[in-house]
Amino acid sequence: MNLKNTVPNVAVIGAGPAGLMAAETLAQNGVDVDLYDAMPSVGRKFLLAGKGGLNLTHAEDQADFIRRYGKRQNDINRWIYEFNPTNLRSWAKGLGIDTFVGTSGRVFPAEMKAAPLLRAWLHRLRASGVRFHMRHKWTGWQDGALRFYHPAGDIVKRFDAVVLALGGASWPQLGSNGAWVALLKAKGVRIAPLEPSNCGFDVNWSDYFKTHFAGQPLSPVAITFQNESGEKSRRLGQFVITEHGVEGSLIYALSGLLRDQIKGNGSTQITLDLLPDLPLHRAIQHCEHPRGSRSVAGHLQSRLNLRGVKTGLLRELCTPETLQSPVLLANAIKALPVTLLSTRPISEVISTAGGVKLESMHNDLMLKEMPGVFCAGEMLDWEAPTGGYLLTACFASGKVAGKGVLNWLAQKK
Ligand SMILES: Cc1cc2nc3c(=O)[nH]c(=O)nc-3n(C[C@H](O)[C@H](O)[C@H](O)COP(=O)(O)OP(=O)(O)OC[C@H]3O[C@@H](n4cnc5c(N)ncnc54)[C@H](O)[C@@H]3O)c2cc1C
Fold first, then answer.
1. Is 397 in the pocket of ligand 1 (CB under 6 A)?
2. Given this model, what pLDDT does residue 2 score?
3. 355 lines ligand 1 (CB under 6 A)
4. Which residue ranges form the domains of the chain, and what is each CATH number?
5. pLDDT over 70 (residue 4)
6. Quick one: pLDDT at residue 5?
7. Which residues contact 325 (CB under 8 A, 6 or more apart)?
């Protein structure tokens, strides 16, 4: 196609943060953009993310920030170079959304929610000429053109390039269901299986424990686990007991590692320190203090201020001998093993690992197998903990893919 005298027309499929950012990058550079999404409205997962406080990015220094992307940090560093946390905050400011740094370094919009930002963004995108096509489910290619299912009938349309930003596979009811995997695999694109990330884990709790303690937070608590090098590491934080097992920020932070250990071994073990600020010898002294006629639970409450779910966990996981032996009990308080059996289903987790392998793509996020087809966002094979790292990389990859399309179109002229 000779693009010399025509305005190129690019399709962006997927109206989440990555797709919207790609659309914006293209539209601001004079490209005619058609944006498609299977759902009736845009950014459904983004809006959900805003429900508990939209954590846009993180304010820690760049070296620490990049390390959060683990084995993909070198690739993602290139994306972040294009659109870093400071750029993200200025971009939000440009939409009239002030941001602030919370106590943990996490960055939020002043109003905490996603809706005002999304509203302002959509307004600007429309003003820059982006055409939105909702209820258009992309179903693949037909003779090199894109094919969409629409309730009024299938649509087949040819574009100069396409950006796929189809998300992962968590919360499929919001639109991202991983159905694209089969479509890209059929074209020879290498894809790592989609897996749960930032997920909870199943534990075989007794009915008694579930009934009495599901929903209760454990805080503060430390987890000792085996890190990537097989060494023991310790991390302080909090998590929640659920009907099925455990979840929450401390668990999410370790979820990639724990998931991979379960894949390798069938299950994995974490060790809980229920009193992370108390040295073991002090715990032993308190447990050895004569308890008279008090129950073990009463003794732990009065000597160590251990109560509720923490005491419940000891009763759930310790043998009667351990509960009766002060030294064994103190050791259990400081190092209580919990066996994690499986990850929670991908449909209910925060994000997805796996996806289009970065080795299948050029640095500008164009598929090696499919010139003119670019991918961005959570559908790529990377993962990161919660803390704003997910959205930052989605926005940044959308920017990279948008710029990639611009360069590719320029080369074709
Ligand atoms: C409960 C929850 C809370 C979260 N909180 C945060 C947070 O505070 N901070 C953070 O950084 N991250 C958070 N995340 C993660 C973050 O929301 C996602 O990583 C991010 O939305 C992914 O962006 P994306 O553009 O790649 O994909 P998505 O936002 O998933 O968008 C993909 C779009 O593609 C569309 N689509 C899919 N298939 C098709 C198809 N075949 N045809 C047409 N359209 C299609 C979908 O309808 C969807 O609109 C949270 C996630 C969840 C579930």
1. no
2. 43
3. no
4. 9-196+352-412 (3.50.50.60), 201-343 (no CATH)
5. no
6. 61
7. none
Which atom of ligand 1 approaches the CA of 138 most closely? 42
pLDDT of 373 strictly over 50:
yes
Say how far apart CA 27 and CA 117 lie, in whole Å.
19
> Which residue in the block uniquely carries the two structure tokens 């499986």?
342
- Distance, in Å, from the CA atom of 167 to the CA atom of 377, rounded to the nearest integer, reads 6
What is the CA(45)–ligand 1 centre distance, in A? 5
pLDDT tens digit sequence for 261-301 = 999 999 999 999 999 999 999 999 999 999 888 899 999 99
| CA dist list (Å): 174 to 46, 135, 296 | 10, 12, 48
Ligand 1 atom nearest 43 alpha carbon: 49
From the CB of 36, is ligand 1 less than 6 Å away?
A: yes
User: Parallel, antiparallel, or unpaired for β 268-273 and 217-226?
Assistant: antiparallel
Residue 148 DSSP SS3: strand
Ramachandran angles phi, psi of 100, nearest 5°: -140, 155
CA 271/CA 340 separation, integer angstroms:
11
> How much is the pLDDT for 339?
98
Exposed, middle or buried by CB within 10 Å (0-12, 13-18, 19+), for 58?
A: buried
Q: What integer is the mean pLDDT of 110-129? A: 97
The residues pairing with 234 across neighbouring beta strands, listed in sequence order, are 224
Q: Is the pLDDT of residue 396 over 50?
A: yes
pLDDT at 6 over 90: no
The Cα 76–Cα 215 span in angstroms is: 35
14 lines ligand 1 (CB under 6 A): yes
- For residues 100 and 57, the answer to whether their CB atoms sit within 8 Å is no
